[in-house]
Each structure stands twice: as C-alpha cells, then as structure tokens.
C-alpha cells in the first residue's frame, strides 16, 4: 500500500474504518471475555470527552505539561493507597508488560548495586505471565522456572530450591492469568527477602479487583504491600480499572527501591535526559483517561462493578460445572476462569471445538494450553449476558459431541 495522493474527508475516513471493524469482536454486547472492559455508557461518555481533550498531550516532559505530572502522581497515589503501600512510589506505564519490564529491570539493578550480581536470575512459576520471559530476554536474565501445585499455585518448596546467590527477583501473581488463582505470596516473598532479592506481585489483573473484593467481604489471600518482602507490584488500570488501553501502574515499596527503575543520562548534545519507563514520548491521553475513570467511578463505582464481575464469575463457574463434559480448572479466586473438558467424561470433549462454535455465535475466548482450555477474563460488562452464554455453551457442547478440530494453535497475541 502507498500513501494516497489525495487526502480523504472525515466522513470517508470514518466509513472506511467502520468497514474494517466489521469482523471485530462484538464487545459492546458483553460477548468478549477479555481484552475489553466496559464500565457502561455513562463512563464511556466521560472517557470519550477526556480522550478528545488530551488527544495530543505528551508526558515526555512534564515541565511542558504539569497537568500530566499531577495526573501521574495522583493516579499512582490512589493505586498505592488501594494496595496499602504507605511509602510506595511508582509511575504510570503503557500497560502490564511495561510495568513488568520495569520491575524486572529494577530488580536487576538492585542486585548489581547491593550484592554485586553480574549473572542475574529470576524465579518464575510456570503460570507467571509471558511478559516476564520477555523481560528476561530483553535484559539478559536467566529464568529458573518452578512448577505449580495441583491447585495451580506456585510450588513454594520448588521456589526455595531454585533460589541462588544470583537470584535478583522472585515472582508471584494475584491472581495468575491462566487459572485465576492467587499464588502463596507471603511464603514466596519471605524466601526472596531472605535472599536479599526483590519480590514482585503481578497484580496486573487483580490490582483493581482484589481491593474491592476485600471490601465486599469476599475471601482474598494476602498479596499486597501488607505482605513483608513484597518490593514491587504491577496493577493495570486498562483491565479491571476500566480505563481505555495504555495505562498500568508499577509501584515500588519505597522511593529507594524505585530509583533502580529510572534512567538518567547527562552526556548528550540534547541536554539532560531522564525517563522513568521504556517510552520516550509518552501519550497523555491514556494517563488522563486513567485519572478520569478512577474519579468518575470512585470507590462506590468500583464496588458496584466488582460485585457484578464476581456475580458473573460465580454464575459462569456454576454453569460450567453443571454442564456434563466440562469443568473449571482449579478454584478461580477473582474474575479469571479456565474452562476445559472433563477428562473423565465419555466421549472426551474437544474444548477448542466448543470454542469455535461459540465464536461462530459471537462469543470470544482466548485458547490456552497446557492443558487445552478456554480462558475467560470476566468483567462487569459480561454480567447481563451470562445466562445467554451458558445456553449457547450447552448447545455448543451438544453440537460438538465427539468431534475434533484440526487447528490446535493457541495465540494469546499476534505478531502482525
Ligand atoms: C494482562 C496481564 C499482563 C500483561 O499486561 P499487558 O497489559 O497485556 O501488557 C501481565 N500479567 C497478568 C497477570 C496479566 O493478566
């Protein structure tokens, strides 16, 4: 394709882009389990207006845009308060991956500065998000993988055995993405602390769910800065914080730990250069939208959305367990559910075939393996349609019967 010779009008542009979106998932109807988090039409109106207001703003230099400096500090402050980080300090990043990259980089720098570690390692449960492997790849860190127990939680004894003098970071998730269970954070964090290493709680998913579940009286295992040894946490506002894409928070227990994250350079013809994250030029739009959604919803709004989310998750889990041939992996503790075939049923169902039939009916799940399962990130927008979903699920199971699909691929994301 080439840059067109002549420009197009606004209407032409909008028509052509609308046509491109024709086969995109129908998230507005609540039929997508993940990727889109919908807080309802009123919140959407607020976000549209704020996005238009901050369309061009740049957080590269907050001297030019003090508004964005203030926005960042308030969003980080609110998140630190929710996560009980009384001394916590951090930054807004572009997403969970960038928050994780920065936490890993900070751990590497601390290991080098305080313990002289030159061949850094990190201890990673097999359930930890792929972004940690990306960080290991980018920053030259060796991964020591540890298994999960029968309940899908990180194996603490294996973690103890995997820690060495070169360990700079131990990781646990709250909850982990694949099966939605919370790792034994206090036990893992204590091991890291004893080794002088960082411990990161990956709460990319749980950061804006678990604090509200706790207030609603649901059982929540310990995971945040109240746990000794937790040195950093990632929490994505662009997931269950209901902000549009491009906003996460990475927090360090205190400022002395945060300084291992930042980059400063004073030997350039362009002058002194300081940058907290991976990015240089940094869009103000997602930062302002993150601030806006936190203030628009408030605690009341998040409690209401979390209640709807947990109700939807409960109905989903009960409905799946009641369906012969299917089961849920483990006991989901927040809003993530893995649906798989019941290995004891005859014939054993091909869960990917079920996923394909659901997709043809407009329901979108990510596929994952091992074991083969359909992943659901449940949020408030799914609550009104869970009944419809369970009806379609039962029909899909019947339609698949003993059939199998050829395509066994699982792609959580794509290159092109
Ligand atoms: C989504 C997610 C990430 C990565 O976040 P992105 O925003 O996709 O970059 C990391 N960890 C967990 C547990 C997640 O759910």
What would you say this structure looks like, in words?
The protein has helices spanning 10-20, 41-53, 66-82, 96-115, 130-139, 156-162, 185-194, 210-215, 255-258, 284-321, 351-360, 386-400, and strands at residues 89-93, 121-125, 142-146, 167-173, 198-202, 232-236, 248-252, 263-265, 273-275, 326-328, 336-341, 366-368, 373-377. The chain has 416 residues and is of the alpha/beta class. It has 2 domains: 47-296, Type I PLP-dependent aspartate aminotransferase-like (Major domain) (Aspartate Aminotransferase, domain 2), CATH 3.40.640; 299-400, Aspartate Aminotransferase, domain 1 (Alpha-Beta Complex). The longest helix is centred in the C-terminal third of the chain and has 38 residues, at 284-321.
Give a quick set of tags describing it.
416 residues; single chain; Aspartate Aminotransferase, domain 2; binds pyridoxal-5'-phosphate; 39% helix
Order of helices and strands: HHHEHEHEHEHEHEEHEEHEEHEEH
Rg over C-alpha atoms, rounded to the nearest angstrom: 22 Å
Distinct compounds present:
pyridoxal-5'-phosphate
CATH H-level superfamily title of the largest domain: Type I PLP-dependent aspartate aminotransferase-like (Major domain)
Counting structural domains, the number is 2
CATH architecture of the largest domain: 3-Layer(aba) Sandwich
Q: Note the overall shape.
A: globular
- Tell me about the largest β-sheet: 7 strands, mixed
What would you call the structural class?
alpha/beta
**CATH class of the largest domain, anyone?**
Alpha Beta
Distance between the termini: 16 Å
CATH fold type of the largest domain: Aspartate Aminotransferase, domain 2
Mean pLDDT over all positions: 96
Uncertain regions spanning at least 5 consecutive residues: none
Give the strand content.
5-15%
Got a strand count?
13
**Taking strands numbered 1, 2, ... along the chain, how are they ordered across the largest sheet?**
1-7-6-5-4-2-3
Secondary structure: helix percent: 25-40%
Counted by DSSP, the helix tally is 12
């Amino acid at each position: 394709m080439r840059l067109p010779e002549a420009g197009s009008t606004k209407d032409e542009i909008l028509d052509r882009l609308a046509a491109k979106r024709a086969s995109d998932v129908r998230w507005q109807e609540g039929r997508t389990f993940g990727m889109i988090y919908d807080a309802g039409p009123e919140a959407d109106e607020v976000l549209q207006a704020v996005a238009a207001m901050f369309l061009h703003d740049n957080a590269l230099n907050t001297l030019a845009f003090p508004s964005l400096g203030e926005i960042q500090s308030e969003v980080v402050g609110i998140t630190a308060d929710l996560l009980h980080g009384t001394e916590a300090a951090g930054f807004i990043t572009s997403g969970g991956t960038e928050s994780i990259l920065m936490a890993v980089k900070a751990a590497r720098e601390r290991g080098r500065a305080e313990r002289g570690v030159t061949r850094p390692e990190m201890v990673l449960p097999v359930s930890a998000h792929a972004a940690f492997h990306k960080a290991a790849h980018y920053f030259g860190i060796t991964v020591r993988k540890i298994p999960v127990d029968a309940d899908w939680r990180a194996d603490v004894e294996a973690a103890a055995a995997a820690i060495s003098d070169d360990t700079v970071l131990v990781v646990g998730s709250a909850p982990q993405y694949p099966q939605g269970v919370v790792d034994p954070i206090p036990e893992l964090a204590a091991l890291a602390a004893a080794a002088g290493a960082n411990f990161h709680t990956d709460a990319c998913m749980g950061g804006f769910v678990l604090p509200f579940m706790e207030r609603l009286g649901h059982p929540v295992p310990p995971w945040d800065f109240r746990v000794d040894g937790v040195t950093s946490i990632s929490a994505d506002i662009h997931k269950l914080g209901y902000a549009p894409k491009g906003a996460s928070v990475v927090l360090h227990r205190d400022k002395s730990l945060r300084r291992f994250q930042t980059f400063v350079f004073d030997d350039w013809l362009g002058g002194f250069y300081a940058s907290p994250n991976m990015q240089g030029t940094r869009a103000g739009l997602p930062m302002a939208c993150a601030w806006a959604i936190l203030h628009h919803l408030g605690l009341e709004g998040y409690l209401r959305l979390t209640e709807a989310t947990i109700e939807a998750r409960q109905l989903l889990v009960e409905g799946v367990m009641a369906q012969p041939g299917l089961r849920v992996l483990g006991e989901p503790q927040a809003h993530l559910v893995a649906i798989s075939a019941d290995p004891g049923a005859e014939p054993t169902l091909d869960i990917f075939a079920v996923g394909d039939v659901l997709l043809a009916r407009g329901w979108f799940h990510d596929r994952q393996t091992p074991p083969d399962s359909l992943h659901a990130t449940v949020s408030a927008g799914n609550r009104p349609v869970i009944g419809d979903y369970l009806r379609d699920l039962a029909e899909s199971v019947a339609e698949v019967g003993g059939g199998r699909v050829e395509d066994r691929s699982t792609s959580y994301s794509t290159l092109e």
